[in-house]
Specification:
Oligomer: homodimer
Mean pLDDT of chain A: 93
Low-confidence stretches of chain A: none
Strand content of chain A: 15-25%
Structural class of chain A: alpha+beta
Amino acid sequence: MSKTSTKPPSGMRDFLPLDVIRRQHVTDVIRSVYEAHGFLPLETPAIENLNVLLGKYGAEGDQLLYRILHRRDALTRALESDDLDQSKLADQGLRYDLTIPLARVRAQYQDLPRYFKRYQIQPVWRADRPGRGRFREFYQCDVDITGTKSALAEAEVCSAVAQVLLQLGFDNFQIRINSRVLLSGLIAAANIPPELEESALIAIDKLDKIGPEGVLKELNQRGIESQAAASLLEIFECESARDDTDIATHLAARLADGPGRAALDELLELSRMLECTPAAGHHRLSPTLARGLGYYTGPIFEIEVDDLAGSLGGGGRYDNLIGMFGKQEVPAVGFSIGLERILLVMEEREMFPALGAGADVLLCWSDVESGELLSLARELRAAGLKVELIPEAAKLKKQLAYADNAGTAFAAILGADEQAAGELTVKHLAQREQERLPRADAIETLCRWRTEAAPDRP
Amino acid sequence: MSKTSTKPPSGMRDFLPLDVIRRQHVTDVIRSVYEAHGFLPLETPAIENLNVLLGKYGAEGDQLLYRILHRRDALTRALESDDLDQSKLADQGLRYDLTIPLARVRAQYQDLPRYFKRYQIQPVWRADRPGRGRFREFYQCDVDITGTKSALAEAEVCSAVAQVLLQLGFDNFQIRINSRVLLSGLIAAANIPPELEESALIAIDKLDKIGPEGVLKELNQRGIESQAAASLLEIFECESARDDTDIATHLAARLADGPGRAALDELLELSRMLECTPAAGHHRLSPTLARGLGYYTGPIFEIEVDDLAGSLGGGGRYDNLIGMFGKQEVPAVGFSIGLERILLVMEEREMFPALGAGADVLLCWSDVESGELLSLARELRAAGLKVELIPEAAKLKKQLAYADNAGTAFAAILGADEQAAGELTVKHLAQREQERLPRADAIETLCRWRTEAAPDRP
């Protein structure tokens, strides 16, 4: 029989125990910080109806959706149709982000709190080309506040995200802050017509990578005439080595009164507010930031860390999205952290604390009844210890070698002698220390060793 | 614009905050018990290659698989093919259970511990007809021990599952225990040929529902002649109101020496072992139990509780499955708990403890700067409190009503007066008790109230 490949599908991963333990450590921190900020947990199905998903992520997003093939009758009918295409073969797809499901939920359930604040930590799927830190199945960790246009909501989502990063041990991150409305104002100030706005943003976004000449060239190629292009570049070349006030002064001088100018003032106010949150010192006004998603309507954010191309997460205000699903407009603002990027940086920088993987105690034995072993395992577990029981008879040396390999810190050894005497041998593997004690004392010793090794564990 | 339906897809559910909190309570208990038993966490992708999944769950299982539609070139090629069917439209599908992914993982990674014990708590997807407690997306909570044929492994998985149920507050459950090998022996003892074994099992499995006459009729319809049918029924009518020893004596008298007889002895030994575990008093020999999946090769288990049609979970030994993926046979035994069934019973029986949902403190305010509010929120959170901040100015009465609605236990009120005096008003909403105190004292009071309300929370 020819063997099936046992690798996971391309762009997806198996998480072996140490991976899961690290991921849990990070999501536990995220969860506790999000809850401290008053966010409530939400979970939605992996599968959504396609008409919920389509058209929300741009043409490229639609291409990257995983679609679920019809079954039974629906499939038969599709296969019989004359002009078969993918729209006839599927009407459900996998979740692409956590924002659209939230918008659907907010529109569906009328009795949610007025300022429904939710967090959601779940995987999403995109049929993208896999790359470093880019997977086809990956986790997003989102916070969103719905039901208010108050800038306090912007400050709260940034506060939550900053606190997460600080608590995980990041110290050199920056939340870049901009606004869609400010961007539109700046582009208008350069005399670029609204229909070329999108094009101009794509070019400006490359300023860091291709420099001013490169951007000028690209702006021209995109049909923006030289004078407007030069003027746009002059507006945007203000970010490096200036503080928020300097940048704001530079921009304000170039903006007429109107929504763009008002948006700039709001960003400055947000900056001041953030100085009163854990984000203090970790945010900056960043006029070139232009997040791709079309649904943003106000401030936008992105987390930048040194030495990482791409961001750890981003977000912004989207006041019109929920209204696409429901009877009424519901303003909203959110921030999404990408779990895999966080893990990538934490692994490279060795930021993980020692995380106990697996059992505390390996229970080794010879010449005793199974029932006696199981009773002892039960007793040790009732004392709060994580216990692995060697399932097969083997030489004691081999059993202890197994404990060493598995990274178990301690062993308990039950032989016929110990059993007869009501005793137990306990061994501290790192310290090569071994004692034979009355059973209750032995269990107490193991618990003491365990507490000394990991004082914080409950 | 016509509005999209905002319901989740049929057979799938949105989990609103209280749902998630209850689910987390149950999975936290499961996780901690599994870890106490020395199981390590594993997570695998939602999507598997179809050749991993197909043929493992019987013809019906293959029908219930969610398949992922090809994209781009692969889809174009498929649509151009002459004899288009679903096998050309998809080569990936959604996870159907957690056992096949474990088998794939065990075969793929050569450096896993010899007795790799893993737990896995993840959703699976089946395009089944939705019903009470039956969903198309649902969570399984599995433990498996691989690499050993020792009956200690059977005892350990049953121990873990029993401890989970006890810790959740179940007291009237039974783990029904049988063996595929014993079943084969009993069917042979009734002179039914092996090719009719599957048929005979389907009929016998209905004994509870349709009674002996019904089963006899069905056995005849399935081509089993009357004398064999009567003899089979006589063998299996032994379960009610007898203990394991009685049942075993009844069966042993009808079995010749051979694998069936040996399997019976092994089950009795397992029963004795289970009396030394948390499963003591919660297991019984159950010769009519016949779990559907074809891959079981030895003991099989199923959890039964009063008042619930269907089981809370099940499992068994499967010594040949991993070998289908890898170069070598790896024996294994596992047990799977269905999260949704557990939740269904716990909800109906009101078994949930009071679970704190959402914020501890609602921060209400009037006539203060945003920065002052954010500083206060930060201070309260640093003291370990979960804090929600009202994002919009409103009358104090309205803000407090919001706290009542949201189920928040306490409020902190910051007005211009409090701010000027370095004070804070704190309110215990249930006790209608309110105090204005110096800020540090106010925070201490909130922490004390919080501890009194939920002494166990860290």
